[in-house]
Each structure stands twice: as C-alpha cells, then as structure tokens.
Amino acid sequence: MSTRMSETVQLFVTCVVDAIFPQVGRDVVEELERNGDRVEFPPDQTCCGQPAYNAGRPREAVEVLIHNLEVLDRTEGPIVIPSGSCADFIIHHGPRLVSSEAPGQAGLAKRAAGRVREFTSHVVEKRGEDIGRGDQATGQAGGVPKRRAFYHPSCHALRGLGLRKEGEDLLESVAGVERVEIEDAEECCGFGGLFALEMPEVSTEIMNTKLDRLEEAGVEMLVGADASCLMHLEGGLRRRRSAIQVLHIASALASDRPPPEGDRGSGR
Amino acid sequence: MSRPVTFRRRARRELSTPKPAAVGRAARRFTGQRQWAVDDFVAMEATRDRGRQIRLHTLANLHHYLDRFADSVERAGGRVLWAADAAEANRMIGRLVGDDRNKLVIKSKSMVTEELELLPYLEGQGHTVVETDLGEFIVQIAGDHPSHIIAPVMHLTRQDVGALFQEQLGMPYTDDPSTLTQMARRHLRRYFLTADVGISGVNMGIAETGSIITITNEGNGWLTTAAPRMHIAVMGMERLVPTFADAATIVEILARSATGQRLSVYTNVVTGPRRTGDPDGPDELVVVIVDNGRSRVLRSEAAEILACIRCGACLNVCPVFRAVGGHAYGQVYAGPVGAVLAPGMADFQEWADLPYASSLCGACREVCPVRIDIPKLLVDQRVRATAENDPFRWMGPGMAIYRQAGKRPTLWKTLLGAGRMAGRVKKEGEWFHRLPFHTKAWTHSRDFPPPATQSFRQWWKENRDGT
C-alpha cells in the first residue's frame, strides 16, 4: 500500500458536471474518498469564467472568476477539478487575467492557482504505487473479451497541464478494459467551448474526423477527463447512432467497483 | 456595420469542395515530418529559445536594425526603398521595372508580394510576370490563390495539377509528380534566361551585412535573384535578424519546423549586386522594405506575432486549418498566425471574426519554433473584436446573464432550476435533437443533453451536507 495521507480537499465540480452530468460529480467524490480524501463542496461556487474569457470578454470572466476564487479562498486544502480545461484556466489564465483586470486581487488568483489539482493527476498521486494495472496483459477478462477503450487526452489537460499518461494509466487500471490508440490521438475534438456555436460547421468537421478515427480503430468506449469535450463527442456519436459508449474517467473508475448503496445513475 | 464575407461562410464554401481532404492529408504529413526533424536534432529546444530571443530582440529594436540594414545594403552597393503601404510599394516596383511596356519579370515565392497583389499590378502595367516557384506557378496558371505559407497548392491533388497542365500548357496528362516537375522546369527555363527583372521575397535580412536570405527547395530563388539584370527584393519590415550568426540560428529551426528537413535544398545569400570580377549576379539590387500595416501590429497587443519566421508549422498542426484549408481565411496569411496577423495588419473591422477561427487547443503554441503564444494573441484579438465590431453580438445578452449569475449563487441556482424544468421534457437518457435560436448551431450536427433532474449541488445538499 502507498502512503495515503488523509486530507481535506475542495471539490470544484464545474458547471457542466453540476448541471448536466451530476453522476460524474458523485463518481468523483467516491473515488476521492476511496483514496482517503475528505471531500468538501463549497456550495457558493458557480463557474470558472473561462467561457467569457475565451469569447473575448475579460470583464465578465474576471468577475465570475473572482467570485469563485473568493469562495475557494475561504476553504483549505487542494482544490480538485474534474476537468483539465477548467483547471488549466484557473492555474494558467486566472493569474494573468486577474492581474490585468483586477490587479488588487492578484494574490487571490495566485493562491488558488497553487491549490488546484486536476482530477486524474490528483488520483494518480493519491493512489501512488497502488494505481493498479487492471488486467491489461491479457485480451480476455474472465473469459469475456475486453472492451476496447480510448482515452481522449483533451487539449487543455494535454498541452496546458502536460497530462495524458495519468488518465491513460487510470483507464488501464479498470478491469475488463483494453486501452487502445487511435490515429491523431492528440488532435482537438473540435469542441472549443463557444467555438462549437460560433463556427458550428468547422467544429463539426473536426469532430467528425475524431469520430471517424474512433470508429476506424474499433473503439467501444470513449473515456476522457473533460465532461464538456465528452458532451460534444457524445452528442455527435448519438447523432450517428453509434454504439460507442462515452464515459468520464471518474465514472469508468466507479464502474470498476461494486455499486454503493442506493441507486446509480446511467454513468453520465 | 458591414461584415461582407465571414470566415464561417468561407469555411462552409470550402467544406462543400473536395479541397479540405487534400489539405488535411498534406498538413498531417508535414506535422509528422516536423516531428521527425525535431526528434532528430538534440539542440532543437535550446535553438528555439535562442531563435525566440533573437526575434524578440530584433522587434524590440526594429528601427535601429532597419537603419543598420539599410546602411549595410547601400554599403554593399544596393539601394533601399521604403514603402508605407501596398499601393506605394507597387508604384515603386512598377517604376523600377520600367515605363516601357512588356518587360519580362520572373518571380520567386514571396508572401509579401501576394499581400501587395503585385503580380496583377505589374500585369496591368503591361508587363509579363512569370512565377518560378512550382507551387506559385501552378497557382498562377490556375488563376488561383496560395492556400499555405510554404505550400501554395496544398489544396490541390497531383491529379488536379496534371489536369491543369494538360488544359493550360497543352501537355500530355500525367499525375506523376516528378514528370510534372520536369514539365514545369522545361517550360520555365527559357524565362530565366531572358528575363529583364527578377523579383524575390526575403526570408531574412541581416542587419550587419545587408545580406538577403531566400530559402527554397527548387533553386528557382537562386536563378531569379542572379540571372536577370535587376533584382528587386521585397521584404516585410520585420523580417530582420541582427547578425549572420543569428540568421544561422533561424535557419536551424526554420526548415525543420516547415517541411521536416534539416535544411532546405537552397539557402541563398545575396549581399549586394554583382561586383567586378563576379561571374554572375544582377547589375542592380533594390530592396523594397514594406510596412503595410506592420507598424500598427508592432504598436498593438499582438506585436509578438511579428516574431513569426513563416514556417507554416502552426497551419499544419491546426485542427481548423486541417479541416477547412487556407482559402477559408480569405486573405494571404492562413491558419493561426494569419488569424492574428490579418486583422492587425489590415482593416480590423473587416477581419474581426478571424481570431474566432480557433478552438484554442494550443497545438500551434506547441510547434511554433519561436514559441509565440498564439492562443493568447487570438484571445487578445477577440477582446478587441468584442469592443470594436463584435462578430457574435448575439452572445451579449447571454454573457450579461452569465456575468450576473456567475457571481450570485442564488441567481445561479435559480437558473439551474430553470434549466432542469426545460430538461424535464426529455425522458431519462434522451437528448435534444433540436435547440432553438442561436443554440441550434449545436444541434446542427450534435444532440444536446438535457440538464439533470437533480443537479450535483442538490444531491450534495440532500445527501452529504453536514456530514
């Protein structure tokens, strides 16, 4: 067993998970607690501000961001975010945005940036040696063929935070799953936040390339750590009537455990 | 405010043609080759850092180095002309080519002359202009525009080129690239020997020596600058480095980033016109230094984009460029670099939607040889766009609500509740096929999930609060 320090973590659940995919949030809580974290959820949180920032509206963005930074500043411990994009925003863009738009609050942005942990990197750190390798060595899981799963390394986790292996390792720890590669695995899925609405045809064309690659590689499960990219990709897959299942990594990890008491939703 | 043809509309038009498929294949191939060349060079990262320093230092002291460069060119026996904009540059070059009509002008590849629309200008003066770069030659006989900084015909297949040669040059059809190249070479050779004037672009000007570097894979750049009596080099005012050693540093990262070569086939250095005793070279060398909006960019928040060394790596890796190709950008500079550069250099209002032609995936920043933070510059340009000519004005009301609710948890929760009500129309597991108003852009190709019947925060409140 690795050394698991019991610590209190703050869950910044993200607006998309809160409103649309709450089961992902519940799976995140379960995984964190399983690794010994005490999870707190500051109830006054809303959204990190990135949608407004990317749209070229720094005033709107900074006000929303600062509200949330103030909420988080009243708490202690690491801030865990189940999204590479929101985490990257608070870590890298927040301090710059705040120091140009609200210089008086620069310290607040810096303090938060230092506490933010993207979900997969936090879990890998917590699991330590004990991350588990699943049963990757064999093509079968208890006589049943394994499901071919691709881990989508979303852009801001990959290029903003330098994360990819963390999610892949976690996916490989899930029993009954074989992690597979697709062509151009690191290419954007075409979501890009409001880009999906501003340039829908271009966004769609990029998405279709990704979906074609998944289908060509015979992928059965698409797993990622950013609910919003997954929402876009699942939306496209459903429109295609594809059988590929889409799962947040937290839900993939939860599927590896016996369900806790009470009902479980549909995954996402 | 008029927004004549938007990126979105042009992209849609391109997507209805077979062009993007060719672009996507070629662009991914270039990116693959670049990766090979980067892995091959142990000092790549350090050389990128050095290259960045050189370019930023040059920009920070641009007027100093421009003066030095001009002095050095004149010391080497050349002349320097300064053009504030395209019209002035064209007039100057037109006068240099000559008042008597029907001069034969050969040209090597140059993005700045595309920017000036020099070729149609000279043709309008009655001269004959021949593009000697194979890609530019194809573009010229097709009556088309380049779609990529270094690969002008990335949007065409070899079958397209074969058909074009058959149609325009009366040559027997083939789609074998080397046969096509031989055909073009034979066609072009006679022009090299009889041209009156050679016009080239400039990859780099060297301030300390007044040298001009042109980098090609075909040797046409060398012939263009050496064979005719007069050589006119057209240079964007930011294309300088201080010293010869600095130029060598840039050369190390340029071809690797561009085509995945260690070095391009020809790195051609010209210092002044032919001297007594030289076997060849032009009698006259004139360098036309073009501003055409660059000073405006230099003074703006996007100044760093001028550090670009025009390798095209950001185009090749960009998912948007790969999807729609260069013509969707509507002007000379395509891809992420073009989306920053064009609005800054030209009429910002007209190009205000270009900075939105990006998912901000960050791939461009990762490959830029001089580490320009292009996504940041794109966002900065969006800030300017929302202030000056917001291409997405319809988002205003939504953003105003977001701003208020984002800092007022009670209002936020009320909106979540309203979303849940809307979601109730869907059965468990069912997604929306059609959304109203501007959000229908989403359901154009994707279903959209209904808000959950119980938000995470409700679940937390009911199950976990106070534990």
Please describe what this structure looks like:
The complex is a heterodimer of chains A (268) and B (467). Chain A contains 13 helices and 10 strands. By secondary structure, chain A is α/β, with parallel strands linked by helices. The two termini of chain A are 31 Å apart. With 467 residues, chain B is of the alpha/beta class. Chain B is built from 22 helices and 10 strands. Chain B has helices spanning 7-15, 19-40, 44-60, 62-75, 86-97, 111-116, 118-124, 134-142, 158-169, 177-194, 220-226, 244-258, 294-299, 313-317, 319-324, 335-345, 363-367, 374-388, 396-406, 409-423, 440-443, 456-463, and strands spanning 79-83, 104-107, 128-131, 197-200, 204-206, 211-216, 230-236, 240-241, 266-270, 284-290. In chain B, the strands form 2 sheets. In chain B, strands 1-10-7-4-2-3 form a 6-stranded parallel sheet, sandwiched between helices. In chain B, strands 8-5-6-9 form a 4-stranded mixed sheet. In chain B, helix 3 packs across helix 12 (244-258) and helix 16 runs parallel beside helix 18. The model of chain B has no long low-confidence stretch (mean pLDDT 95). The interface between A and B is large, with 69 and 73 residues.
Identify the notable features of this structure and list them briefly:
heterodimer; A: 268 residues; alpha/beta; 4-stranded parallel β-sheet; 13% strand; disordered C terminus; B: alpha/beta; 4-stranded mixed β-sheet; 22 helices; 10% strand
In short:
The complex is a heterodimer of chains A (268) and B (467). Chain A is α/β, with parallel strands linked by helices and 268 residues long.
List the chains of the largest interface with their residue counts.
Answer: A-B, 69 and 73 residues
Can you give the mean pLDDT of chain A? 92
Number of helices of chain A: 13
Question: What is the molecular shape of chain B?
Answer: elongated
Oligomer: heterodimer
Question: What is the topological layout?
Answer:
The complex is a heterodimer of chains A (268) and B (467).
Chain A: E1 8-11, H1 15-19, H2 22-34, E2 38-40, H3 50-54, H4 58-73, E3 79-81, H5 84-101, H6 106-115, E4 116-118, H7 119-127, E5 140-141, E6 144-145, E7 147-152, H8 155-161, H9 165-172, E8 177-179, H10 195-198, H11 200-216, E9 221-224, H12 227-239, E10 245-248, H13 249-255
Parallel strand pairs in A: 1-2, 1-3, 3-4, 7-8, 7-9, 9-10
Antiparallel strand pairs in A: 5-6
Helix pairs in contact in A: 2-13, 4-5, 4-6, 5-6, 5-8, 7-9, 11-12
Chain B: H1 7-15, H2 19-40, H3 44-60, H4 62-75, E1 79-83, H5 86-97, E2 104-107, H6 111-116, H7 118-124, E3 128-131, H8 134-142, H9 158-169, H10 177-194, E4 197-200, E5 204-206, E6 211-216, H11 220-226, E7 230-236, E8 240-241, H12 244-258, E9 266-270, E10 284-290, H13 294-299, H14 313-317, H15 319-324, H16 335-345, H17 363-367, H18 374-388, H19 396-406, H20 409-423, H21 440-443, H22 456-463
Parallel strand pairs in B: 1-10, 2-3, 2-4, 4-7, 5-8, 7-10
Antiparallel strand pairs in B: 5-6, 6-9
Helix pairs in contact in B: 3-12, 16-18, 19-20
